[in-house]
Amino acid sequence: MLTAPRAAALAAIGLLFVLPLLAALPLAVVQGASAAAWASLFDDPHVSQSLALSVRSALASTLLSFGLALALTTALHGSPAWLRLQSWLSPMLALPHAAFAIGLAWLVAPSGGLARLLAPLFGWAFPPDWTTVNDPGALLLTGVLVAKELPFLMWSVMALLARPEVAIQLQRQIAVGRTLGYGRAALWWRVLWPQWLPRLAWPLLAVLAYGLTVVDLALIVGPASPPTLSMLAYADLMAGDPARNARGSAAALLLAAVLAALVIALWMAAVLFGRGWRRLAVSGRRRPVRGGSPSLAGRFFTALAGLYVLVVCILLALSVAGVWTFPAAWPQALTMDAWRQVAQSAGTLAGTAALAAAAALLALGLVVGWFEAAPPRWDRSATPLVLAPLVLPPLLLMAGLYQAALALRLDGQWAGLLWVHVLVVLPYVFIALQPAWRSFDRRYEQAARALGRSRPAFWWQVKWPLLAAPLAAAAAVGFAVSVAQYLATQFIGAGRHATVTTEAVTLAAGGQRTQAAAFALLQAALPLLAFGAAAWLGRRRLAAMRA
Amino acid sequence: MTLRLDAVSITLHGRALVPALSAEVQPGEVLAVMGPSGSGKSSLLAWLAGLLEPPLAGQGRLLLDGLDVSLLPVERRRIGLLFQDDLLFPHMSVLDNLLFALPAGASRAERVTEAMAALAAAGLDGLAQRRPHQLSGGQRARVSLLRTLLARPAAVLLDEPFSRLDATLRAQLRDFVWASLRERGVPAVLVTHDEQDVPPGARCLRLADLGAGRA
Lengths: 547, 215
Prior knowledge:
The complex is a heterodimer of chains A (about 550) and B (about 220). With about 550 residues, chain A is mostly helical.
């Protein structure tokens, strides 16, 4: 029954989340629907090359990270290494894309860590003539995307496999399949992935959309001449000239159309491939499938986790490096200048934390409101809308939301910034909280009510304590997503609200690596603190329940 | 094939759960293992299948025609397992579920013919292209048994396979299962807590009785 509180919760979600999304897209389309804008876009001699770079890096990084996620799961699921991998994912996810890119860029730069390591072997006195950072083929951009999207896809796979109805089914199907004579790897490829892959379409689409329209990473490690199409679009959208703004919107629309075309092409390829695959899957051959080696997969993931640790170490070293000439392995002089600058920008740090905390809590409130007000069967219908901010090209979405913010006079306002961060954070909070919330046994409520407890009393005394850990984890995810936002802050903040992310990206793009490294560390530290606090709360609740 | 349990015991956290037991099951014969909840009958079955996980552990030997298979991985034991749930793969048709179990070696056409014949013999003609969710509970249970048998197992383990069915279906399926096992000469171990599930003339091990000597 739709009671007044339930109706109010659904209305709040509609007003704060659904309405802005539905309004943003037409606004973005209107801005880009000008013949002059499209003519100007196609007059640019770089557009086709820029588009090719965007498509190539997005497609390659998506397919590679997805393939690796499937291979790692196939090889490690059910082994002790799977649990270790789970514990590594949170800190890896907490390291924002931009921070990772800043550290990795220095590692592979001609005057960076790798070259300094090799210099004694090859007798280099000067940096080698490498084009590793901002390479014209966008290879480093692709590599960074793979390294950052792989943990996200692993997290999505784990979230799916941990759902109660999936976990039980999976365990039994593996048992049955093995008694039919199939090894674990053979079972995953023949039966389990074909069954569960459709459920991973959303995160896959999110990765593809992000890769195609990424701006912050492209600013740091992407090709410069020509840049990716998203960079061209971003530069136009941020310009003060309305004609360039319209051209930027047209470029964002073009990217959205390309994304739609890629999705259709991938879907058709999956259907065709699926038919052939099904025939192979039931061929009766039991021979082990290659590529299922747990030790190889474990070593690969350890290497990836090691790369993350190395990047953090690099950021630490860079943030205190004074004079550090090539090919010296260590800085000749240390300085705290970068951290002094950070100290002077304490307001930026506090502002970032406050914005992220507010966005995470608001998104959490809306998501909990949805779970409490809407029956579970509605989740399936609502999923496309909830995940829209994840899968829509961010440039297009932000261009539309900026138009909406302008109309509501929220551009440059903290409230406007908070609202857009909530929009972006909410899908992640939803994904993080849904398994725990929806698998909560409703009979607890019936039992509590039968014992004379009111609904609020049940919520406070039973449901909240039992769900405190997943609530805290979902809030931490939301906090981390908000901290890492670049486009949303730049567009809606209209340059008036700096965060550690916008500072880090701007400094890195400007070549100020010491200060960029310090801000990148802060960018990583804030989510890590949030994940740490969530884990502590989870353990505390568990200990309290055991006691 | 003859199935032999040789001094098989199960421990939980190192403490005896099922004391050492030995038994021999002839081709087409059913050995029923009965006992109250927690007596370790499902754990015994899991050990026989090779699926027992810590903190449970098993000792002893499992022999198929004199060959010790207790150290082999699950997929190489050739021991079929039927659960309470049918566990048919929901994204595959009935025919594909059966083809998945049929060993390779013959052409696709021959394999399809064999699967279709098995369906017809089980009174399931016309259902080959249906998905599991389009079948009734009894039909799913029969397809599940066919899938297990088409994998040509050396022995079959049944973990309370009738407990989710209503009384009428239960009786029908019991007859179908025992007839199928007898016809193919497959030895079977049945775990149940219901006397009516035990086929006439089957030997019965009662874990509570066996456990009477436990410390």
